[in-house]
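Q: Could you fold this chain for me?
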Amino acid sequence: MLNTTQKFWEKSWVIHIEEYLNTTPRAGIFIQNYFKNVKSILEIAGGSCRDSRYLANYGFDATGSDFDENTLEYLQTERFPNDKLKYSKEDAFSLTFNDNSFDLVFHNGFFIYFDNQKIINMLKEQARVSKKFIVVFIHNINNKQLIKIFDEKAKEDDLYKIRFFDENELSLIIKKSGIDYKNIKIMKFGGKSDAFYNKKLKNIIPNILYTFRKYLIPKLYQFQKWDNTERICCIIELNK
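A: Sure. Below is the predicted structure, expressed as structure tokens.
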């Protein structure tokens, strides 16, 4: 798999961080809409921490973590000096938090750079620090157009050398991990419905529809075909 050393990520975030910061916090919006009884949230391998920042700004007790200290320092001191988000430098395989520290632990992508055993190790650590939920967003192998785009980009940028998953493979890895869970729910995430996030729509569609579109888009994802869907959203409800 990809060389995911700290040096690699330091270099990658210097190149990509502003691009990520300017992208809609879709995972944060999804979590905000889906989970009604969650207060404390940890984002793992957050990088730009775009999604956990969104959640912090909407009243969640959110922590954004990454193992690249330079990126976190840049966000905290230069880009968002008055941030409501808490930051923590963390190794996803050995988190510094106590058991059951958060209602929900999530990451966007991340598994896409690792083999099954490392994913299992991370799942165990995420289950340790979470009271209720683990949420995983990963790239969908059924979307052939997406794979083609990443293959082209990977020729010039190692960031796009990733692994794609289908729902059955992901479910099997979770079951093999041995974490104690009540259920696993697979949902569609990202795709053509994201077009409704376009700010230009404000001049085209009714104001009420524009205002509430972020509540509608996560629901619209579920009506897409899998081959038009960007990612798999896996919600693991823990047995605690």
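A (continued): Residues 12 and 157 are 9 Å apart (CA to CA).
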